[in-house]
Amino acid sequence: MEDSEPLKEQRAMRPKCGQLPNGGLNGRPEKLEDVCYSFWVLSSMAILAKVHWIDRDGLISFILSAQDTEGGGIADRPDNMVDVFHTLFGVAAGASHF
Fold first, then answer.
1. What are the pLDDT digits (tens) for 51-89?
2. Which pLDDT value is given to residue 28?
3. How high is the pLDDT of residue 82?
4. Is 37 exposed, middle or buried (0-12, 13-18, 19+ CB in 10 A)?
5. Could you tell me which residues come within 8 angstroms of residue 77 by beta carbon, excluding any fewer than 6 positions away?
6. Cβ(35)–Cβ(89) under 8 Å?
7. 17 touches 25 (CB < 8 A)
8. What is the chain's Cα-based Rg?
């Protein structure tokens, strides 16, 4: 069975939206994933009405993996130091678009 045109479009564009295999998002090709891009990329996808192109569970898992469960806050990526900037955008991504 051949894919429908919308499904072909989705499959062609998904790699361009910046979601990596670990669920995180990046802002440009060849860049590492970063929690702040969760907000920026999701916001862009929302404007384009394409949030459904993002793997929700993968992204939430990535954001939570960057969380400091003892001291609080969210880092740019797992095992890095938390900061207010990434905490804000990590929480805003989940609250705004999911």
1. 988 999 999 999 999 999 999 999 999 999 999 999 999
2. 85
3. 98
4. buried
5. 24, 32, 33, 34, 35, 66
6. yes
7. yes
8. 14
Long-range contacts of 61-68 (CB under 8 A, 24+ apart): 61/23, 62/22, 62/23, 62/24, 62/25, 62/33, 62/35, 62/38, 63/35, 63/38, 63/90, 63/93, 63/94, 65/22, 66/35, 66/90
Q: Please say if the pLDDT value at position 4 is more than 60.
A: yes
Tokens representing residue 3 in the block:
């894919």
Q: What is the pLDDT of residue 62?
A: 97
Rounded to the nearest 5 percent, the helix, strand and coil shares of the chain are 55, 5, 40
Q: How far apart are the first and last CA of the chain?
A: 31
- Asked whether 69 and 26 are in contact (CB, 8 A), the reply is no
**What pLDDT digit, counting tens, does each position of 10-26 carry?**
666 555 578 999 999 99
Residues 24, 46: Cα–Cα separation, whole Å: 17
